[in-house]
Amino acid sequence: MKFNGFPPGKVTFTRVPALFFRELLPAIDNLEELKATLYALWQVTRLEGEVRYLQVEDFTSDPDFLAGMGSDPSEQLANVQTGLERAVNRGTLLRSEIPGSEDEFLYFFNSPKGREAVQALEDGSWRPSDGDGPSAGLSIERPNIFQLYEENIGPLTPLIADTLRESEELYPSTWIREAMEIAVANNVRKWNYIEAVLRSWQEEGRDERKDRRHTKKSRRAYLEDEFADFIED
Asked: Among 116, 189, 194, 217, which lies 20 to 30 A Cα-Cα from 156?
């Protein structure tokens, strides 16, 4: 498959610790391990909450990711397991079994927060809960908000473009997309309406869940804390 290039406008980036390029990338000599590691990095940046982990199902339930892991289902699953096993053996990922489960494992990055989470899981002070895991795969990566605005709300003027850029610094991109969807569903195709929805979620919590009030800046701060040992000033 030939890559057609990146689209115009602002695109979403995934933050990768510089240490990955300096130490891990030169050491990784297996394609499955490299793909599993990069996919795990991408997934964990999309999570909310203080404890971020992945399970095997988060890799094997994404058809687009699996398509690059082999020519048939059995080969794909075997390569995912190989990639994860090698990442664990290298020390990139930490794997811990959920106490009382039957072969249910959680994968954490080998970072300060990851090590704390493994310890908390093992001593019983923390357990995973429903809704903690990733909800998105490569197949539902959406267009950027500039495209969404033009397709659903109206023409993209320079003033609107500046407003959208500012909003991306204040709110998660998923919130902006969902607020646009609400505006379209209610046939109120105005940015003021969308912005009011976003402010409401930020002040009161989306879906009345206070723990989901994570802006893009707070997630960015989490990542800097998550990989604090790896980030140079």
From this structure: 217
Specify whether the backbone of 207 is left (phi greater than 0), alpha (psi in -120 to 50) or beta: left
Torsion angle, CA of 170/173/176/180, rounded to 10 degrees? Answer: 160
Neighbours of 110 (CB within 10 A): 16
In DSSP terms, 130 is beta-bridged to none
Under the phi-then-psi rule, with left for phi > 0, alpha for psi from -120 to 50, and beta for the rest, what region is 48?
Answer: beta
Compute mean pLDDT per 10 residues along the chain, 233 residues long, and list them: 73 83 96 97 82 93 93 96 98 94 92 94 86 54 76 87 87 86 89 91 65 44 48 43
Q: How far apart (Å, rounded) are the C-alpha atoms in residues 197 and 174? A: 13
For residue 57, give Cα distances in angstroms to 61, 174, 192, 233: 6, 22, 39, 36
Residue tagged 């080969």 (tokens): 75
Phi and psi at residue 144, in whole multiples of 5°? -70, 165
State which amino acid sits at residue 153.
I
Among 26, 60, 31, CA closest to 43: 60
HEC per residue, 177-191 = HHHHHHHHHCCCCCH
